[in-house]
Design goal:
With 176 residues, the protein is α+β, with helices and mostly antiparallel strands. It has one domain: Trna Endonuclease, Chain: A, domain 1. 25% of the residues lie in helices and 34% in strands. The protein contains four helices and ten strands, in the order αββββαββαβββαβ. Strand 7 and strand 8 form a beta hairpin.
Length: 176
């Protein structure tokens, strides 16, 4: 994490997000569940499981502190993600919530992979550094009150085994 001082805030936001998602899941058939990676592995933040087939995809979660203060106020037409996150083959989904947690944006990593890598300066807790990033227009924004739409988008993706907007997923991971 590039802002180590924000770990607790990040983890608290992720806990709230996951609880909200799982509450919606419970009310809507409970076929898809979200879980946290409790041990820091510097890879992913957790997984989303399609229970009928015992398949999971891993996700990266971020609470935005810049450029996304609240729902419907994301500052860009494209969503960016660090190449270091996209290159982790086991992670398929990026989720970014707004600073006030009233909205969130998500995109499939395979959609990012269709785009070229750009070198962009990124702010860190100690200054700036140049990192490879990819950008996609294939992302969705939802209000936190519309978590049921996210649930049904994920359910649809699992049932079709399509974790991009236009082509099948490359990798699937069975739970052990």
């Amino acid at each position: 994490m590039y802002f180590a001082g924000k770990y607790k805030e990040h983890n608290d936001a992720l806990n709230r997000f996951m609880r909200t998602f799982n509450n919606y899941a419970f009310k809507n058939g409970n076929e898809v569940r979200m879980y946290l990676e409790h041990n820091e592995n510097y890879r992913d933040d957790g997984g989303i499981v399609y229970l009928p087939e015992n398949i999971k995809v891993l996700y990266d979660f971020e609470k935005r502190h810049n450029y996304y203060p609240t729902f419907d106020k994301f500052s860009f037409k494209e969503l960016g993600q660090f190449e270091r996150k996209i290159s982790k083959e086991e992670i398929h989904l990026s989720i970014q919530c707004s600073t006030d947690e009233t909205g969130f944006i998500y995109a499939w990593h395979n959609d990012f992979k269709n785009e070229p890598i750009r070198s962009i300066k990124s702010k860190t807790s100690t200054g700036y550094e140049s990192n490879g990033k990819r950008f996609t227009k294939n992302f969705k924004e939802l209000s936190s009150q519309s978590m049921n739409k996210f649930y049904f988008d994920l359910l649809h993706a699992f049932k079709l085994k399509k974790f991009v907007l236009d082509k099948p997923i490359i990798n699937q991971y069975k739970l052990l």
